């Protein structure tokens, strides 16, 4: 693929927006994955290259959440094993599936997750009056976290909303702490997936690092916005942009 002013601008713009969205809730890869495919990367390499920005975004936003006292590490202890095992399974599937099969799966998954987010918000956002539960008190969460890890290792796009549904809907954390734990889980399975993709030679580093610089900046902005932005506005913006760029990637 050729790196031009236009492609760099596309990566920086979508990366910045994706970084903000991923911090506030999730779904930023709905923008960055189609952007990478529009630039000419096959679906498997776009999926792999996208993880560079995801892992860098995870590092800067976790540090920021922790500095503000919003990362409940006590509640995070039981999350690592299921998402890590799931991430290994999902990343192997993503790495070895043919690119011609992976592209329609990626795009269908992204649009489906956006529709769920818009029209079934109760599956994503928890009640503000419920107290957090330990993972051992809701064993079903372990299996849901495992499936979330599989999904995240496989496709990444929209996994934030899957994790929010499990962590907030199942374990009853408030949305800010849920987002921090969600990013921690994302970093766990993304590190495994990225290592596999690097070993398989599927990461294209120049666009990956350009994208990463923008997603890190967006992540820091997103932490500051986390308590103030309207979720409804963000859901509609994300849905419209997802449909537009996904259709463009299919053409």
UniProtKB/TrEMBL annotation:
This is Probable membrane transporter protein. The chain crosses the membrane at residues 79-97, 104-122, 142-168, 180-199, 205-225, 232-250. Signal peptide: none annotated. GO terms for cellular component: plasma membrane. The lineage of its organism: Bacteria, Pseudomonadati, Pseudomonadota, Gammaproteobacteria, Oceanospirillales. It comes from the Bacteria. InterPro entries: TM_pro_TauE-like (IPR002781), TSUP (IPR052017). It is a multi-pass membrane protein. Coiled coil: none annotated.
């Amino acid at each position: 693929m050729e790196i031009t002013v236009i492609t760099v601008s596309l990566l920086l713009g979508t990366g910045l927006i994706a970084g903000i969205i991923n911090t506030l809730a999730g779904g930023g890869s709905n923008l960055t994955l189609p952007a990478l495919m529009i630039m000419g990367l096959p679906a498997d390499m776009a999926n792999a290259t996208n993880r560079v920005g995801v892992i860098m975004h995870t590092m800067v936003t976790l540090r920021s959440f922790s500095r503000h006292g919003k990362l409940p590490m006590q509640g995070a202890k039981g999350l690592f094993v299921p998402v890590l095992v799931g991430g290994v399974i999902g990343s192997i599937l993503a790495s070895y599936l043919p690119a011609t099969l992976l592209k329609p799966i990626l795009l269908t998954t992204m649009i489906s997750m956006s529709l769920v987010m818009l029209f079934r918000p109760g599956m994503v956002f928890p009640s503000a009056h419920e107290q957090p539960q330990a993972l051992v008190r809701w064993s079903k969460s372990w299996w849901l976290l495992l499936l979330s890890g599989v999904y995240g290792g496989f496709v990444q796009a929209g996994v934030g909303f899957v994790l929010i549904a499990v962590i907030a809907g199942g374990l009853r954390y408030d949305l800010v702490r849920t987002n921090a734990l969600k990013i921690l889980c994302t970093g766990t399975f993304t590190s495994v997936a990225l290592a596999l993709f690097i070993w398989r030679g599927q990461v294209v580093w120049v666009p990956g690092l350009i994208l990463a610089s923008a997603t890190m900046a967006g992540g820091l902005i997103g932490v500051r916005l986390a308590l103030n932005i309207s979720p409804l506005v963000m859901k509609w913006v994300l849905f419209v942009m997802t449909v537009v760029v996904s259709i463009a990637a299919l053409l």
